[in-house]
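Student: I would love a firmer grasp of how sequence relates to backbone shape in proteins. Thank you; the sequence and its tokens follow:
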Amino acid sequence: MFKEYGEYDALGMANLVKAGEVTPAELLDAAIARANEINPAINAIIHRFDDRAYQYIKDGLPQGPFTGVPFVLKDLLAAFAGEPMTMGSRGVAVVPGYDSEIVRRYKASGVNIFAKTNTPEFGLIITTEPKAHGASHNPRKLGYSTGGSSGGSAAAVAAGIVPMAHGGDGGGSIRFPASWCGVFGLKPSRGRNPLGPDQGEDWQGAVAEHVLTRSVRDSAAMLDCSSGHEIGAPYNIALPSATFLSATTRDPKPLRIALSRKPLVNTLLDPEVDAALSKTAQQLRDLGHEVIECEPDIHIDRFWRDFFVVVCGEVAAMVALYSRLYGKACVAKFEPATKNMAMIGRSLSAADLVAAKKGWHDIQLAMGRLLEHHDVMLCPTVPTPAVPHGVLPNSRIEELLMLASHRINVGKWLFSAGLVEQMATPVLAKMAFTIMGNITGLPGMSVPLHNSSDGLPIGMQFTGRMNDEATLFGLAAQLERDIGWS
């Protein structure tokens, strides 16, 4: 057994393999042993295929920067041929006969995929507590949320099962669990990573896929492997002039950083998070950067509404598709919140969707103007540290109300009566800093710099200019070297 498994990041493990100091089988042995030890307590992994992973080693893993490194996939979006994909739902058990494009690129990097991780149903809530598989526990404090929707992946990295795991981000779903579990998570620019072949974009461009990692350099190196145009995609982003990995090897120039304290949803900032934000600002100044308090010109009353309209429209279309493909029995097993969001989406018109997308443009313009004069924007990733299980999912009474009304298209009335805001605010308030990155498509990262007084991680979010992940990686690597993770 490779006893030092937990001391290495993914590139470090791959380098040991290249040097002949450890074998891919020994790395897989160590990952499986760690999963067997810790996963029963945290429920990060919900499906394993160990034998298949050992067979990949026998067949010969591709030669790449991560050859032999154990890896896990979030059980959503990323199709892996021959393995079931539930998407966190009791109603879905699809077994794809193909790999999605990003999985194909992951395989080419040399990683050895052996499991799939827990996720909320269809990634629709930012805590990983699905009825299908049960709650994932935060490795830093059992009984507390991992965040979501990449909560299982974040927990697997934080618990040392793997050094790097796949995730996806539609409203903060990489950055959010990275913050609450204390790992590094970057959401790349819109179109940087592929989403095909099933779709060119998801949630009107809000969704991006990438990885959660132990180190900054692993995230950068994997983006070098996974990014680039694919056939049929609506975006064609030019590759950077140098590798993302190279950006992590040198300190960035002194940056002009906008510091934002104002949540973009009507909520309060936890005092410990606010103190961590101020501490981060001083740490950045000590490193030679200029930090200026500056808020983007975004109207918060419209901000959450425009996002919610688009997502509910997408959920309505998804539920209609699954009903056609798999029948009403499939949809009947969906969680009440999913059914309710689909009902709201059906209640809205195409004009409502277009108006919401116009609101998205206004936010894109506001952020573009702010980033004309600043290299990056700093804010908390989440307004609070992790919360106990049961806080974010809807209550039983709320679920019963959803089940009673989901067949009647009363979504517009629910909006006008303020009931949508009332029921959605507990979740949306926690997403008050992350949603902006999905609406704008800007790259953003959560950096695990601080802890609360009771030991829960507090991540800081940095948002960069479109297609400028290199600056983010350079800054994150500098913070990792000079300050260290929480």
Notes: The CA atoms of residues 458 and 466 lie 25 Å apart. The chain has a mean pLDDT of 96. DSSP finds 18 helices and eleven strands in the chain.
